[in-house]
Amino acid sequence: MMITPKRWCGFLSAANKRSKIISILLLSLFLFQTTQGQVSIPAFQTEFAQKNQSGPQYQLGDRIQLSVRIPPEVAQELGTVTLKNGDETKPLDQQGWYLDNNAQMIDGNLRFIVSPIKPGKLILPELLIMKDENHPVAKTTAIDVDVANIKADPAATPVMLDTIAISLPLKFVILFIFILALIALGCFLLYKKYWAKRIQVKATNEIKVPPTPDHVIALRELDLLYEQRPYSRENMKPVAFGVSQILKNFFSQRFKVDARESTTDEMLALLKGEALPEPEIKKIRALFQNLDTIKFTESAHHEHFQKADYLEFKSHAKTLVEAWALKGDAP
Asked: I need a surface site. Which of 94, 129, 216, 322 has the fewest CB within 10 A?
Protein backbone atom coordinates (compact mmCIF):
# COMPACT_ATOMS: atom_id res chain seq x y z
CA MET A 1 0.00 0.00 0.00
CA MET A 2 1.42 3.30 -0.98
CA ILE A 3 1.35 6.28 1.49
CA THR A 4 0.70 9.51 -0.26
CA PRO A 5 1.96 12.85 1.07
CA LYS A 6 -1.59 13.88 1.89
CA ARG A 7 -2.20 10.82 4.11
CA TRP A 8 1.19 11.30 5.81
CA CYS A 9 0.39 14.90 6.73
CA GLY A 10 -3.02 13.87 8.17
CA PHE A 11 -1.38 11.21 10.37
CA LEU A 12 1.15 13.71 11.72
CA SER A 13 -1.61 16.24 12.47
CA ALA A 14 -3.67 13.68 14.46
CA ALA A 15 -0.60 12.56 16.45
CA ASN A 16 0.21 16.18 17.22
CA LYS A 17 -3.34 16.81 18.57
CA ARG A 18 -3.19 13.72 20.80
CA SER A 19 0.16 14.88 22.24
CA LYS A 20 -1.27 18.31 23.04
CA ILE A 21 -4.28 16.78 24.84
CA ILE A 22 -2.05 14.50 26.91
CA SER A 23 0.26 17.42 27.79
CA ILE A 24 -2.70 19.57 28.86
CA LEU A 25 -4.08 16.77 31.07
CA LEU A 26 -0.69 16.18 32.72
CA LEU A 27 -0.20 19.92 33.31
CA SER A 28 -3.70 20.25 34.86
CA LEU A 29 -3.04 17.30 37.19
CA PHE A 30 0.27 18.83 38.31
CA LEU A 31 -1.28 22.24 38.97
CA PHE A 32 -4.16 20.62 40.95
CA GLN A 33 -1.74 18.68 43.17
CA THR A 34 0.46 21.74 43.65
CA THR A 35 -2.55 23.85 44.62
CA GLN A 36 -3.74 21.16 47.05
CA GLY A 37 -0.32 20.98 48.71
CA GLN A 38 -0.15 24.76 49.15
CA VAL A 39 -3.53 25.32 50.85
CA SER A 40 -2.88 27.87 53.57
CA ILE A 41 -4.62 28.18 56.92
CA PRO A 42 -5.33 31.50 58.68
CA ALA A 43 -3.00 32.70 61.42
CA PHE A 44 -4.46 34.45 64.50
CA GLN A 45 -2.55 36.78 66.82
CA THR A 46 -1.13 35.29 70.05
CA GLU A 47 -1.38 37.54 73.13
CA PHE A 48 -0.55 37.30 76.82
CA ALA A 49 -3.67 36.44 78.84
CA GLN A 50 -1.92 37.71 81.97
CA LYS A 51 1.24 39.83 82.13
CA ASN A 52 4.20 39.17 84.39
CA GLN A 53 4.23 42.20 86.71
CA SER A 54 7.38 41.30 88.67
CA GLY A 55 9.78 42.42 85.92
CA PRO A 56 10.53 42.33 82.21
CA GLN A 57 11.52 38.68 82.33
CA TYR A 58 9.88 35.37 83.14
CA GLN A 59 11.71 32.68 85.08
CA LEU A 60 12.28 29.03 84.30
CA GLY A 61 9.15 27.00 85.02
CA ASP A 62 6.74 29.96 85.05
CA ARG A 63 3.25 29.12 83.75
CA ILE A 64 2.58 31.64 80.96
CA GLN A 65 -1.06 31.85 79.95
CA LEU A 66 -1.59 32.84 76.31
CA SER A 67 -4.77 33.80 74.46
CA VAL A 68 -5.76 33.65 70.77
CA ARG A 69 -8.92 35.35 69.53
CA ILE A 70 -10.79 32.90 67.26
CA PRO A 71 -13.41 34.26 64.77
CA PRO A 72 -16.89 32.75 65.23
CA GLU A 73 -16.84 31.03 61.83
CA VAL A 74 -13.65 29.16 62.78
CA ALA A 75 -14.68 28.52 66.39
CA GLN A 76 -17.84 26.73 65.19
CA GLU A 77 -15.68 24.10 63.48
CA LEU A 78 -13.75 23.28 66.66
CA GLY A 79 -14.81 20.52 69.00
CA THR A 80 -12.08 19.39 71.38
CA VAL A 81 -9.30 21.92 70.92
CA THR A 82 -5.73 20.63 70.57
CA LEU A 83 -2.47 22.35 69.66
CA LYS A 84 0.39 20.87 67.68
CA ASN A 85 3.89 21.99 66.76
CA GLY A 86 3.81 22.68 63.02
CA ASP A 87 7.53 21.96 62.46
CA GLU A 88 8.13 18.36 63.52
CA THR A 89 11.87 18.71 62.77
CA LYS A 90 12.21 21.13 65.70
CA PRO A 91 10.49 19.71 68.80
CA LEU A 92 9.26 22.30 71.31
CA ASP A 93 11.51 21.03 74.12
CA GLN A 94 14.56 21.64 71.93
CA GLN A 95 13.34 25.21 71.42
CA GLY A 96 12.99 25.64 75.20
CA TRP A 97 9.25 25.15 75.69
CA TYR A 98 6.84 22.83 77.46
CA LEU A 99 3.27 22.94 76.12
CA ASP A 100 0.36 22.14 78.44
CA ASN A 101 -2.13 20.86 75.86
CA ASN A 102 -5.18 21.38 78.09
CA ALA A 103 -6.37 24.24 75.86
CA GLN A 104 -9.83 25.75 76.43
CA MET A 105 -12.23 27.88 74.40
CA ILE A 106 -13.67 30.71 76.56
CA ASP A 107 -15.98 33.25 74.87
CA GLY A 108 -14.22 32.94 71.54
CA ASN A 109 -10.73 33.03 73.10
CA LEU A 110 -8.45 30.01 72.89
CA ARG A 111 -6.55 29.85 76.21
CA PHE A 112 -3.48 27.65 76.67
CA ILE A 113 -0.41 27.53 78.94
CA VAL A 114 3.28 27.16 78.13
CA SER A 115 6.33 27.01 80.41
CA PRO A 116 9.91 27.99 79.49
CA ILE A 117 12.50 25.30 80.22
CA LYS A 118 15.56 27.21 78.94
CA PRO A 119 16.87 30.66 79.88
CA GLY A 120 17.47 33.48 77.42
CA LYS A 121 15.37 35.07 74.67
CA LEU A 122 12.99 32.35 73.46
CA ILE A 123 10.62 32.35 70.50
CA LEU A 124 7.47 30.29 70.83
CA PRO A 125 6.87 29.13 67.23
CA GLU A 126 3.59 28.95 65.35
CA LEU A 127 1.29 26.24 66.72
CA LEU A 128 -1.35 24.49 64.64
CA ILE A 129 -4.92 24.58 65.98
CA MET A 130 -6.23 21.10 65.17
CA LYS A 131 -9.84 20.21 64.41
CA ASP A 132 -8.80 16.60 64.75
CA GLU A 133 -5.54 14.68 64.56
CA ASN A 134 -4.92 15.33 60.85
CA HIS A 135 -6.83 18.53 59.98
CA PRO A 136 -5.51 21.94 61.12
CA VAL A 137 -8.01 24.79 60.82
CA ALA A 138 -5.82 27.70 61.93
CA LYS A 139 -2.53 28.55 63.57
CA THR A 140 -1.14 30.91 66.20
CA THR A 141 1.52 33.55 65.59
CA ALA A 142 5.02 33.33 67.04
CA ILE A 143 5.76 35.25 70.24
CA ASP A 144 9.01 36.37 71.95
CA VAL A 145 9.66 35.91 75.68
CA ASP A 146 12.70 36.82 77.83
CA VAL A 147 13.45 34.06 80.37
CA ALA A 148 15.79 34.43 83.36
CA ASN A 149 17.37 31.75 85.51
CA ILE A 150 15.72 31.11 88.87
CA LYS A 151 17.50 33.19 91.49
CA ALA A 152 17.69 32.23 95.12
CA ASP A 153 15.99 34.61 97.52
CA PRO A 154 18.69 35.97 99.91
CA ALA A 155 16.02 36.60 102.56
CA ALA A 156 15.11 32.89 102.52
CA THR A 157 18.74 31.77 103.11
CA PRO A 158 19.21 30.82 106.78
CA VAL A 159 21.98 32.63 108.61
CA MET A 160 24.09 30.38 110.83
CA LEU A 161 24.92 32.03 114.14
CA ASP A 162 28.13 31.39 115.98
CA THR A 163 27.84 28.75 118.69
CA ILE A 164 28.20 29.93 122.26
CA ALA A 165 29.59 27.62 124.90
CA ILE A 166 27.55 27.74 128.14
CA SER A 167 28.76 26.10 131.31
CA LEU A 168 26.42 25.72 134.28
CA PRO A 169 27.39 25.13 137.88
CA LEU A 170 26.85 21.60 139.14
CA LYS A 171 24.01 22.65 141.47
CA PHE A 172 21.91 23.88 138.51
CA VAL A 173 22.45 20.60 136.69
CA ILE A 174 21.28 18.63 139.74
CA LEU A 175 18.27 20.93 140.18
CA PHE A 176 17.29 20.46 136.52
CA ILE A 177 17.49 16.65 136.82
CA PHE A 178 15.40 16.79 140.00
CA ILE A 179 12.67 18.84 138.31
CA LEU A 180 12.56 16.40 135.39
CA ALA A 181 12.20 13.51 137.85
CA LEU A 182 9.27 15.25 139.59
CA ILE A 183 7.53 15.84 136.25
CA ALA A 184 8.00 12.20 135.27
CA LEU A 185 6.64 11.02 138.62
CA GLY A 186 3.59 13.29 138.31
CA CYS A 187 2.84 11.95 134.82
CA PHE A 188 3.13 8.36 136.07
CA LEU A 189 0.71 8.99 138.96
CA LEU A 190 -1.84 10.68 136.69
CA TYR A 191 -1.61 7.80 134.23
CA LYS A 192 -2.05 5.23 137.02
CA LYS A 193 -5.06 7.11 138.41
CA TYR A 194 -6.67 7.33 134.98
CA TRP A 195 -6.44 3.59 134.35
CA ALA A 196 -7.69 2.84 137.88
CA LYS A 197 -10.87 4.81 137.16
CA ARG A 198 -11.38 3.01 133.87
CA ILE A 199 -11.23 -0.37 135.62
CA GLN A 200 -13.81 0.72 138.24
CA VAL A 201 -16.32 2.09 135.75
CA LYS A 202 -18.96 -0.46 134.79
CA ALA A 203 -19.28 -1.31 131.14
CA THR A 204 -22.23 0.41 129.54
CA ASN A 205 -23.91 -0.25 126.25
CA GLU A 206 -22.17 1.79 123.62
CA ILE A 207 -24.39 3.89 121.44
CA LYS A 208 -23.23 3.46 117.89
CA VAL A 209 -23.14 6.84 116.25
CA PRO A 210 -23.12 6.67 112.47
CA PRO A 211 -19.98 8.20 110.97
CA THR A 212 -20.26 11.72 109.61
CA PRO A 213 -20.63 11.60 105.78
CA ASP A 214 -17.58 12.74 103.84
CA HIS A 215 -19.48 15.51 102.03
CA VAL A 216 -20.74 16.94 105.35
CA ILE A 217 -17.16 17.06 106.64
CA ALA A 218 -15.94 18.80 103.47
CA LEU A 219 -18.72 21.44 103.54
CA ARG A 220 -18.16 22.10 107.25
CA GLU A 221 -14.40 22.53 106.73
CA LEU A 222 -14.98 24.95 103.83
CA ASP A 223 -17.24 27.14 106.00
CA LEU A 224 -14.72 27.05 108.85
CA LEU A 225 -11.83 27.96 106.51
CA TYR A 226 -13.64 31.02 105.17
CA GLU A 227 -14.63 32.11 108.69
CA GLN A 228 -11.02 31.94 109.86
CA ARG A 229 -9.59 33.47 106.65
CA PRO A 230 -11.71 36.49 105.57
CA TYR A 231 -10.80 38.04 102.24
CA SER A 232 -7.44 39.81 102.00
CA ARG A 233 -4.45 39.61 99.67
CA GLU A 234 -2.47 37.89 102.45
CA ASN A 235 -5.18 35.23 102.91
CA MET A 236 -5.44 34.27 99.21
CA LYS A 237 -2.59 31.75 99.41
CA PRO A 238 -3.71 30.05 102.70
CA VAL A 239 -7.26 29.81 101.33
CA ALA A 240 -6.00 28.27 98.06
CA PHE A 241 -4.03 25.64 100.02
CA GLY A 242 -7.02 25.00 102.31
CA VAL A 243 -9.61 24.56 99.53
CA SER A 244 -7.22 22.30 97.61
CA GLN A 245 -6.57 20.04 100.62
CA ILE A 246 -10.27 19.84 101.61
CA LEU A 247 -11.22 18.69 98.10
CA LYS A 248 -8.35 16.19 97.97
CA ASN A 249 -9.49 14.71 101.31
CA PHE A 250 -13.06 14.51 99.98
CA PHE A 251 -11.98 12.82 96.74
CA SER A 252 -9.85 10.34 98.72
CA GLN A 253 -12.82 9.33 100.90
CA ARG A 254 -15.47 9.40 98.19
CA PHE A 255 -13.58 7.56 95.42
CA LYS A 256 -11.22 5.48 97.60
CA VAL A 257 -8.04 6.87 96.00
CA ASP A 258 -4.88 8.32 97.55
CA ALA A 259 -5.27 11.94 96.43
CA ARG A 260 -4.13 13.67 99.65
CA GLU A 261 -0.41 13.85 98.78
CA SER A 262 -0.83 13.83 94.99
CA THR A 263 -0.13 16.65 92.57
CA THR A 264 -3.03 17.97 90.51
CA ASP A 265 -2.05 15.90 87.46
CA GLU A 266 -1.62 12.74 89.57
CA MET A 267 -5.00 13.32 91.25
CA LEU A 268 -6.77 13.80 87.89
CA ALA A 269 -5.16 10.60 86.60
CA LEU A 270 -6.52 8.73 89.65
CA LEU A 271 -10.00 10.16 89.14
CA LYS A 272 -9.94 9.23 85.44
CA GLY A 273 -9.10 5.69 86.56
CA GLU A 274 -12.35 5.73 88.55
CA ALA A 275 -14.24 6.39 85.28
CA LEU A 276 -15.35 9.90 86.18
CA PRO A 277 -17.08 11.66 83.26
CA GLU A 278 -14.88 14.04 81.26
CA PRO A 279 -17.06 17.10 82.08
CA GLU A 280 -16.49 16.46 85.80
CA ILE A 281 -12.74 16.12 85.22
CA LYS A 282 -12.70 19.46 83.33
CA LYS A 283 -14.50 21.24 86.21
CA ILE A 284 -12.02 19.86 88.74
CA ARG A 285 -9.04 20.73 86.49
CA ALA A 286 -10.25 24.32 85.96
CA LEU A 287 -10.57 24.95 89.71
CA PHE A 288 -7.22 23.36 90.64
CA GLN A 289 -5.35 25.27 87.90
CA ASN A 290 -6.40 28.55 89.55
CA LEU A 291 -5.62 27.23 93.03
CA ASP A 292 -2.16 26.00 91.92
CA THR A 293 -1.42 29.37 90.32
CA ILE A 294 -1.95 31.07 93.70
CA LYS A 295 -0.25 28.31 95.71
CA PHE A 296 2.98 27.98 93.75
CA THR A 297 3.67 31.44 92.31
CA GLU A 298 4.61 34.79 93.78
CA SER A 299 1.87 37.30 94.56
CA ALA A 300 2.76 39.35 91.48
CA HIS A 301 1.73 36.42 89.28
CA HIS A 302 -1.79 36.17 90.71
CA GLU A 303 -2.74 39.76 91.44
CA HIS A 304 -5.60 39.45 88.95
CA PHE A 305 -7.50 37.24 91.43
CA GLN A 306 -9.85 39.48 93.43
CA LYS A 307 -12.56 39.04 96.09
CA ALA A 308 -15.01 37.65 93.53
CA ASP A 309 -12.50 34.87 92.70
CA TYR A 310 -11.91 34.27 96.43
CA LEU A 311 -15.65 33.66 96.90
CA GLU A 312 -15.91 31.70 93.64
CA PHE A 313 -13.35 29.16 94.89
CA LYS A 314 -15.66 28.28 97.80
CA SER A 315 -18.78 28.23 95.61
CA HIS A 316 -17.11 26.03 92.97
CA ALA A 317 -15.76 23.63 95.62
CA LYS A 318 -19.18 23.35 97.34
CA THR A 319 -20.83 22.68 93.97
CA LEU A 320 -18.44 19.76 93.31
CA VAL A 321 -18.98 18.31 96.80
CA GLU A 322 -22.77 18.72 96.75
CA ALA A 323 -23.02 17.23 93.26
CA TRP A 324 -21.39 13.99 94.41
CA ALA A 325 -23.36 14.03 97.67
CA LEU A 326 -26.58 13.89 95.60
CA LYS A 327 -25.20 11.08 93.44
CA GLY A 328 -24.57 8.85 96.45
CA ASP A 329 -21.78 6.27 96.34
CA ALA A 330 -19.22 6.65 93.60
CA PRO A 331 -19.35 4.10 90.77
From this structure: 94
